[in-house]
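Hi all, posting the design record for the shared folder.

TITLE: backbone redesign
STEP: 1 of 1
STRUCTURE INPUT:
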């Protein structure tokens, strides 16, 4: 799903997108990271997705370091 097409100023909609991206990073990092690298998401979703992935115990530390570089 292309999350960048979902435009909302609603907190819970943006949190849902962020959680979905964070979980997707665990399931398929290489495919999902493209969304974050493109930086087409709104600032909240971009940074919250990264935050949730970094807080996760499922994501390896080297990937967390790379995710930190993608914050906007």
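Okay, here is what came back for every position:
SEQUENCE:
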């Amino acid at each position: 799903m292309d999350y960048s097409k979902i435009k909302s100023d609603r907190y819970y909609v943006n949190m849902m997108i962020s959680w979905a991206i964070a979980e997707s990073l665990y399931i398929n990092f290489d495919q999902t990271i493209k969304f974050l690298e493109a930086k087409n998401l709104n600032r909240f979703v971009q940074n919250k997705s990264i935050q949730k992935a970094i807080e996760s115990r499922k994501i390896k530390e080297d990937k967390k370091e790379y995710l930190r570089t993608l914050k906007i």
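COMMENT: Helices lie at 11-27, 29-38, 43-55, 61-68.
Let me know if anyone wants the other runs.
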